[in-house]
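Repro case for the chain-ordering regression, as requested:
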Amino acid sequence: MAHGVSTVRWGSGSEHIVASPTVDLVALLPAGEWAAVRPLNITGGMMAGGDWAVFAKAKWLREGGHQAFIKFIVPAGSHAGPKTDLITGGGRLARLASRLVHIKAQGDDLPVVRLLEVSLSSSGLLVAMEEVTPLKDLIDQGEAYQHSVRLLRDLDPFGARLPWMHFDICPKNIGITATGKAVLIDLESLYLKSSGAYDISVPAWKPFRAPPTLVNDVEVGLATGALGSELAMRKVRFEVALAAAECVLGPLPPHRSAFDASQAQAWLADADPGDPAVAFWRTEVDQLVTTGDIRALSELARDLEALLVGHADAAVAPRAWRTARGDGTSEPQPGAGSLASRPAGGWDLEWNLLVPTAHALRAGRLDREGIREYGVVLDDLALRYPDRHEIWDELLLVRICYQKDPNAALVHVNTALSHLNGDARLTRTQGILKMWASEKDRRRGE
Amino acid sequence: MEASIQVWGKGYRVTSDTEEFQRYVPSGNERESGLEMTLRGTVWGPILEELYGVPDRELSAQRCVLFDPNELMTLAFARTADRHGRPSLVLVAAGTQIQWQDTQLGEITSRVVSLATRLACDYADVFKGNPENVGAQLRGGSFLPSRVFDLSRETPDASVEWPLVLSGVRQWRGITGVATTRLLALGANITLGTRYEAEKARAINRVDGYYDVREKEIRPLSEKLGKWPEAQPVPPERPGRAQSAGEPNPILDSLTRIEGQLERLIALTEKVIDQGPRVEKRKKGLW
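-- result from build under test --
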């Protein structure tokens, strides 16, 4: 181990996480720019596995405030072994920092997560990026179905203004932004074309996810130095297509050998044959394990999209979520926008999803329409969770303090009392609302 | 467009400013703008005392924007707690250079307000319990490497129609700032509220007018406000509802009356709530 192994106290109060690298991110990050720093105990991946980096989530307070994911790479010490030195040596960190700064400057020209900050100091390399939802989590939860086409479109390297290749594309290294865009998140594996080829400095990838022919070609390519453009594009195309297929078919089962026909068969065995997207990917996966290649991503996206549009009624995703409403329909409510189309995933999940909007309401960032939409969503939630005090409190807050509508508030408090019979606080609120509503009606009548 | 911020609070000894309320950022002798310098001379005691009793929700809804010929500064408070769990307050002041001819002034104001409001909330969490690492950063000057914030990605504050308020401000001389009633003591002389609220606030603060939310214009309450003599009609930044001067508007009049009634009702309720604990204490004292 290059750096000292010791136990470090992370965070404050009772939050203790033991980690190896001797870096206290909470003390290191300027508290005026980084709030709510929560160290993460990530075990998988090259950096975490080698104790070469520490990870955290935090709120970046600049540019409107963003939830951020932080990776802090600890530099190799003077007694580091060759592997550690290759990955986290001073020279490599300096080159990596320079490359990331360049990537950050390209903005939307590259399909990568938005980099918030890249800074190199004697303590290490800080890479902060906008928080996104890892595609792997969505696939594991069966919520990635609708991202299949988007992945094919957003991560297509063909015709990019700035030619790029990512050496390790897999669901773990793909993120979905709040707007649904697919982006690459492990930026250390992103390379830009130089002199007609890609100079791969750390050739770390998952060969067990590729067919034997591709694995062999990549090994031969790497042995000659830089990876040629054609092979690089074939590798990217394959990896993106495989991830897009996993969105529909579910996660590729773990295996140690290369991805071949028998692996594919085992993977496809459980898929629903009646689903057109499943049938589509079944054909394509068969093709790619046989030939080791796959069609252009734009073609795949076009055909899959056409298929899904053509089977709009039949294409009910077996793993996709839909908003469950009390009246049995699954369409979002008119005007309720993105909030109303959120998943019904249990009280905790749904309540937590409302937190950003609740904060925006209190911070005065919701306009009248936004407040109305928020009310619609709360209404829907109250229908499904009528025994939760929290939802009635929030609903009453909106109606009384923000919409100043005593009659609507009175309807809510009456409904709430029918479920929470005898609640003293609600009964008192009911009394005040009755007075307010009757005063309002009296005034209206004058 | 950028804004530079100041952060004030209690619980850490960072600068040599007033004992009761410390300026945390900037901690050194950085050059300050004219409006920023006025904060140094502020007597914080009565202002903070008034705000301690305000519920969190109401505190976060308070707005204050101060003006001078070249800049505007907005101030936002949030509640935090010291190491002993006692309530405390954080103030964030965000200021930016302006040109009064700028047609985007209202948009700029709404973004500066949004920046100050959200940072006050975030810093309230950061200072809660006075963590030692935050104190070390404040004293060492590493808490905030730059107090300049980019405004382009700020979500505009939607709680007030800032473009219309600023259109009104441009038409009058003698305006030092606009604020909701709780923050008038910071130096604003126009109330963002009803005539009733403005007149009530005049008993305590200097109030020379109010922003009439119904007519979308500033109404003077004293002779200290005057229309600029050469003032051309300044087009509002958002189209308002056209209405002829003499057109009666019974619905709006009725709503105004109801609003007045409700304000009085709320004031009365607040008074009763405020007196509740005192009455209890008095009762206990008698026994």
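Ordering looks correct now. Chain B has eight helices and twelve strands.
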